[in-house]
Specification:
alpha/beta, Lyase, Ornithine Decarboxylase, Chain A, domain 1, 2 domains, nine-stranded mixed beta sheet, binds pyridoxal-5'-phosphate
């Protein structure tokens, strides 16, 4: 990590306390621009999947880079509207009727442009007659860094199975809907261009076969992974962009159609921009040959290691040149699974990690915490979520404050704020 970045993270911990999430705006903008630049296809609309990180400062930054939004809940749609998003795709799954109706109502307004991405035949039938909509198609290809994040293929709960396209089309015709967009999202954390290529071929084959006469947009979803381990390589973005542009341009040329290409990455723009800074408070040597470093955070703030066995790189910002030793970095949650050092071995179990000597009070930094970090945090054990801070132009700006313990207690007592 650059010395200036490490210095900013230490400053954030001193100013806002620990634990604290810090997002580097320059990294977010770099990822947005490099993805846009990697895809030479001229008619494109990139959406940001808000679920990866819904902090207002992060979303505003990405909107500023020219992205629209992919939203999975009415809360995300309302946030996007408040932040001035021009285009919102509402990609729901198993939502309550009241939420679906609220989204349909918003889709009728001129601004922002909200499209409903129908996840089932039932929701296609629920739309008011003569709606313009997207359909989410589930083909045979799925992928991802863990079984829980594979969203395509026969075992997936998402989308309308591709075999049911004739029903979808006749339903749409009966309701006089215009299917203006087709959508597919196969999973998350994929760095294999060939996997995307297979999925792209599937979606294009569906469009080739069923035509979708009102089609304007083809959305290939999100899923672009990032390296988490220092030994991992990023996906070859240029190769991805060239493949996508090549396949899509050829398809449009052959079909004689002028379609807009869409993607909706969540992890890619934000993962590497985020850091969770925590403080070591306990160094425990056990008679069984293990050394635990206890820190003032846990899976209530970053659940990925416990939930998926995910690796998050850890550095010691207070003692970067210390002599390395193996440590288990453990959180303060009352569960034995609350160990951050995972993903080092084959089985994603808790494992010791070589870190520069950790002393009581040292600041440890969990890297790549910008995606699916804070958004998956909870108040488990009655501990507030951390504050979130944006590092912008060398300045640290509070982007969301933390609740106080007093607020949590009042909420638990049913007395609100
Ligand atoms: C429909 C949809 N689109 C986009 C994304 C973003 O995926 P990623 O963060 O892997 O880019 C997700 C994440 O699961 C999703 O469900």
């Amino acid at each position: 990590m650059q010395a200036t970045k490490a210095h900013a993270l230490i400053q954030a911990a001193e100013r806002f306390g620990t634990p604290v999430y810090v997002y580097d705006q320059a990294t977010i903008l770099d990822r947005c621009r490099s993805l846009l630049a990697a895809i030479p296809y001229p008619r494109k609309k990139l959406l940001y999947a808000v679920k990866a990180n819904s902090n207002q400062a992060v979303v505003k930054t990405i909107l500023g880079a020219g992205f629209g939004l992919d939203c999975v809940s009415i809360g995300e749609v309302l946030l996007g509207r408040t932040l001035g998003a021009g285009t919102i795709l509402y990609t729901h799954n198993n939502v309550a009727d009241a939420e679906f109706s609220a989204a349909v109502k918003m889709a009728r307004a001129a601004k922002p442009r909200v499209w409903i991405n129908c996840d089932s035949l039932q929701r296609l039938a629920d739309l008011p007659r003569r709606s313009a909509c997207f359909v989410r198609i589930n083909g045979p290809v799925g992928g991802g860094h863990h079984d829980h994040v594979i969203t395509g293929g026969p075992d997936s709960k998402f989308g309308i199975p591709w075999e049911q396209m004739p029903e979808a089309l006749s339903l749409a015709a009966a309701r006089q809907h215009r299917i203006i967009g087709v959508h597919q999202h196969i999973g998350s954390g994929i760095r294999d261009v060939a996997k995307f290529e297979r999925a792209i071929e599937v979606l294009l084959s569906v469009v080739r076969r069923y035509r979708f006469p009102d089609l304007e947009y083809v959305n290939f979803g999100g899923g672009i992974g990032v390296p988490y381990r220092p030994t991992e390589q990023p996906m070859d973005l240029r190769a991805f962009g060239a493949m996508l542009t090549g396949r899509f341009s050829e398809f449009c040329r052959e079909a004689g159609r002028d379609l807009t290409l869409m993607l909706e990455p969540g992890r890619f723009p934000v993962a590497e921009a985020g850091y969770l800074v925590v403080r070591a408070n306990t160094i425990k040597e056990t008679p069984y040959g293990k050394t635990y470093v206890g820190v003032d955070s846990g899976f209530n703030h970053l659940v990925r290691p416990t939930m998926y066995g995910s690796y998050h790189h850890i550095t010691n910002a207070s003692n970067p040149r210390g002599k390395t030793r193996p440590y288990y970095v453990a959180g303060y949650i009352c569960e034995s699974g609350d160990i951050f050092t995972r993903g080092d071995g084959d089985e994603n179990r808790a494992a010791p990690r070589e870190l520069p000597e950790v002393r009581r009070g040292d600041l440890l930094v969990l890297h790549n915490a910008g995606a699916y970090g804070y958004v998956m945090a909870s108040e488990y054990n009655m501990r507030p979520r951390p504050p979130e801070v944006l590092l912008s132009g060398g300045k640290l700006v509070l982007a969301r404050r933390a609740k106080t313990v007093g607020e949590l207690v009042r909420e638990a007592l049913g007395s609100g704020r």
